[in-house]
Amino acid sequence: MIGYIDCSFSNLDRRFQLNKDAMNISNTSTDQGSKVLAERLSSTGKFIITFLYAASIVFGLAGNSIAIYFSVTKKAGNRITNMLILNMAIADLLVTIFTMTVNLLLLHVGPRWIGGTFGDISCKIVYFSGQVSVPASISIVMVVSIDRFFAVVYPMKARAFRLKIKMVTLAAWVCSAAYAIPYGISFGIQEEDGIFYCSLWFPPLDNMTSLQIYYLITFIFFYCTPLLILMVLYTLMSRKLWKRRIPGNVTEERHKSSEQEKRRVIIALISITVVFAVFWFPSHVMLYIRFFRTTDVYPKVPMEIKRLFYWIGYFNSCVNPCLYVLLNRGYRRYMLQILQRFRFFCDFCGFHRSKIHSLSSANEPALVALEPCRLVGFTARSERVCAPS
């Protein structure tokens, strides 16, 4: 996203040039003011940044691929949940492929590109795809949150919303693509001293005013608004869950299990909100400094801090599979079923087979749960109390 690019102008007296690199490296001009070069990192800093990005790419590819596999095979979760998880995983996978991977390569080779028609088209496609992925991921998170809100707070209206959820999800992708169109149009190929660069050379994002407006749109619609929605919806959901009581006479053991499950779900809801707010906040702080305090504050910020702050935002796409797949009852159970087949993994991690928990629902398969050696596991009944599907 434009908001997660650290860049500088090669010459303020000529056409604005913005070069995107892997770690949001600032670009400087040569003595002739025509060639834009990536700022060099210290060997230690470059190694750390490379490691963080490489590890995140592996983690993101693995986590989101597993989420896609679960969704496509439909062996866990219901149809609507599978569809939402699939769309979220695809968006996060695009972040991993087009944003983190390309940025890692640019860290070492700079913003150089290939020339010709293919180079120009590939330049636009790569950066347009990267620009679509982040808002699409955030938008799908909003759809998931609204779906859970109706299921918990207004269950009678949940069915009506789910009938429209395909259109809502499609609208999220369309809006994200529309947001990224100016970015794709502005990118192109320019040749300087026989070297081709893929950069922001063209309108509408070829001046500082346009970039400031574009960033404000990014900040309002893809950080402030989603964060406000998450806080309101999950607060209402937490209140509803906490006040919910099991009907009829219940044993003390079942009541205790229900209270523990409520706390687990509420902690999960809080975690989703906190992760979103914390992971993207450093990027937006740096972006504000970049576009509104360009001359006085921005040059004083160490390059390693800039790169670290932007990486934290990208890493959110690696964390999403853990939050929305592992915290989901059906997906978590299916993953445990898969892990128990790998005996070497279980032995290495200190896990072993426990007794088979027969689920109370007739249409759900029996679960062979994995429990740590301390034998502190979950029960089938406790997993079914108040947990969002």
TrEMBL record:
InterPro entries: GPCR_Rhodpsn, GPCR_Rhodpsn_7TM
Domain G-protein coupled receptors family 1 profile, first and last residues per copy: 63-324
UniProt GO cellular component terms: plasma membrane
PROSITE patterns: G_PROTEIN_RECEP_F1_1, G_PROTEIN_RECEP_F1_2
One of the record's GO molecular function terms: G protein-coupled receptor activity
Location(s), subcellular: Membrane
Keyword match 4Fe-4S: no
Keyword Transmembrane helix assigned: yes
Keywords, sorted A to Z: G-protein coupled receptor, Membrane, Receptor, Transducer, Transmembrane, Transmembrane helix
Alphabetized Pfam families for the sequence: 7tm_1
Primary location class: membrane
Record field: transmembrane: 47-72, 84-105, 125-146, 167-185, 213-236, 265-288, 308-327
Signal sequence annotation: none
Membrane association type: Multi-pass membrane protein
Record Gene3D superfamilies: Rhodopsin 7-helix transmembrane proteins
Family of this protein: Belongs to the G-protein coupled receptor 1 family.
Protein name per the record: Tachykinin-like peptides receptor 86C
